[in-house]
Every structure is written in C-alpha cells, then in structure tokens.
Amino acid sequence: MGSYDPEPQKLSIETPCIPSATLSRVAGCNIFLKLENLQPSGSFKSRGIGHMVYRAMLEKPGGNVHFYCSSGGNAGLACATAAATLSQPCTIVVPITTSAHMIEKIRLLGAKVHQVGSNWASADAHLREELLAHDPIGVYVSPFDHPHIWEGASRIVDELVYQVKPYNALQVDGIVCNCGGGGLLNGIMEGVQNNFKSTDRKPKVLAVETAGADSLNASVKAGQLVTLPAITSIATSLGASRVSERTFKWTQEAPYLESLVVTDAEAVMGSVRFANDAFMLVEVACGATIATVYNGDLRRVIGEGLSDEEWSRKNVVVIVCGGRNVTLEVLRDYQEKYGV
Q1: 3-class secondary structure for the chain?
Q2: Which residue has the higher pLDDT, 48 or 241?
Q3: In contact, 202 and 192? CB cutoff 8 Å
Q4: Is the CB of residue 153 less than 8 Å from the CB of residue 116?
Q5: What are phi and psi of 3, to 5 degrees?
C-alpha cells in the first residue's frame, strides 16, 4: 500500500434521496429521486469508477499509477475526475462519435484524450493494444465490467434504504435504473441482495434501455448473451453493444428483475418533462429511466396486479443517474426532432 491514502469519500458522495410530489402524482405511487446527477463527475459513474481507481492505486507500490479508460462519455469523465482528485495521470480513449462537448470536459480535468475508432469496442482495443500494453504502471479502468465498480455502485442501495424512512416509507417496493453495459444495474442488484434478505420483501428492479441500445433486452429474449450489430439510439451513454456476463446472469437468477425498452422519443420526453418538473437537466440516457414514470410503464410493470389503492401506497426509487452529455441546445434540438 502506498504512503498516500486519501479519504475515498472525496471520490464520490452520499447523494440525496428525495420525494417528488409531481412525479408521484403522475405515477400514482410514492416516487423518490436518488440524485446521482450530483456526484463529482455529474453521474453515478463516480461511485463505481471512483471506488475502483482508489482500490487500484492502493495496490500499487508507492501509489503511482496511470489510469486508462475507454469511454465516449460519462465513464471517461468519471475516471478523469477521480484521477484529478488523486493527482494521478489519466488517458481516455474515445471513439470518433464522441462530442467535442464531452472531450473538452475531460481535457479540462487534465486527462489526455485520444479519439480513435468508430465505436467503443475499437477505441477499447486501441487503448489496450497501443497504450496500456506499453505502460508498466498503467491500470485499465473498465467503463462498467469490474467487481469493484459494482461494489461502489451498490452503495446507492445502502443509502436509499435508510434515506426513505424519514418520509414514512418503511419499505422500498421498486427501484428503476437504466442499463448500458450493466455497471449500474449490477451494483443495484448487489445492493438489493445485501440489504433485502427475504425474497418476499425484495423490491422489484426495472432495468431500462432505449431501442437501438437494448443489448440486455435482446439477450433476455434470446436466452443468451447477444451482441448488437450497431448502436442506433441517440442515448449513446447506453451504447454498449453487449452487456457484462454478470448482468445477464442477474436476469436468470433474480425473478424480481425486469428488462424494459423505451423509444428515443420517450427518452427525450423523460428528460424534457423532468427539466420542467424537477428543474434538473439530465441527458436522454437518464431520461429513459424517468420516462417510465410518465408513460405508464412503471405502473404496468412494478404495479402489475395491484389495484389503484394498493399501488398508491407503494414506494419506488428512481435512480437519476445524471450524465454530462447534454446541453439546453441539445435537448431543444431533440425536442423539435421528436415533437415532444
């Protein structure tokens, strides 16, 4: 272990979990918002990636490392944010589809940025073969596929379990999150397993993707891991063509986990209405999660078989995952394009 041992909580924070009267009225049940958009990097990625890089640094002699992450968005931003906090060098490799807006944010944190390849897979291959392989202190930081990342994300559930209790919510009946490669979902499932020991009292978990970035849903339908031929959704932060093996295993092991797909238009609607109702700007990958409140999917899936009165007493936590790949102008353009 190195001599430099910073407090790990600097890399991520305990985020608020607050009730939303507006979204509760729309959903017909008690909606709580877990505000991961307030993390240092602007998204939940600070949880898992912050935890992973901290662990990796402590395992290196003298704590000297160079972090390498392949990400076209929030994972790269989270890695660069954590590296800056730890005063360690960082290189991010992004595909050519990554916006100049995101690249500039990463560079402002002091990270080196390489733009290579038409998709994440090719950017990742370049990182591993051309950069990481030649750096003896290099540490690979996966955007989503590592047990330490899942462990860090699982703390979301550790927190929300006690955060809802002051609002007379003695039981969490549902948790809604999105799914890209599966890092967040794996963490949520691990957290549920750790905090809810009785099968009967486990909350339902709804994993949301957008059509065109729905590698988990495609795998569930096929009964095996599926690799999408291309990502066609505008929700590029969900753009993993194949989810982690652990993510798919959760769908086989946990009957309380449901996979759901919304359209790009619904994801845009979720972001637009959330901006109006909660006064927060989130990218459309996060809007996909929130859309389930507005379009009735939440009631249909988590409230299946319940009367309206029974449903009104249920407590559902929506993971507002955040994301920095959004501006007012981008959201307005999407709003015009999809007519929402």
Answers
A1: CCCCCCCHHHCCCCCCEEECHHHHHHHCCEEEEEEHHHCCCCECHHHHHHHHHHHHHHHCHHHCCEEEEECCCHHHHHHHHHHHHHCCCEEEEECCCCCHHHHHHHHHCCCEEEECCCCHHHHHHHHHHHHHHHCCCEEEECCCCCHHHHHHHHHHHHHHHHHCHHHCCCCCCEEEEECCCCHHHHHHHHHHHHHCCCHHHCCEEEEEEECCCCHHHHHHHHCCCCCCCCCCCCCHHHCCCCCCHHHHHHHHHCCCEEEEEECHHHHHHHHHHHHHHHCCCCCHHHHHHHHHHHCCHHHHHCCCCCCHHHHHCCEEEEEECECCCCCHHHHHHHHHHHCC
A2: 48
A3: yes
A4: no
A5: -75, -20
Q: Where does the pLDDT of residue 59 fall: very low under 50, low under 70, confident under 90, or very high at 90 and above?
A: confident
In this structure, how many other beta carbons lie within 10 angstroms of the beta carbon of residue 13? Answer: 14
At residue 1, the pLDDT reads 39
Summarize pLDDT for 7-25 with one digit per residue, the tens. Answer: 555 899 999 999 999 999 9
Question: What is the structure's pLDDT at 2?
Answer: 42
- Other beta carbons within 10 angstroms of residue 108's beta carbon come to 11
pLDDT in tens, 287-327: 999 999 999 999 999 999 999 999 999 999 999 999 888 88
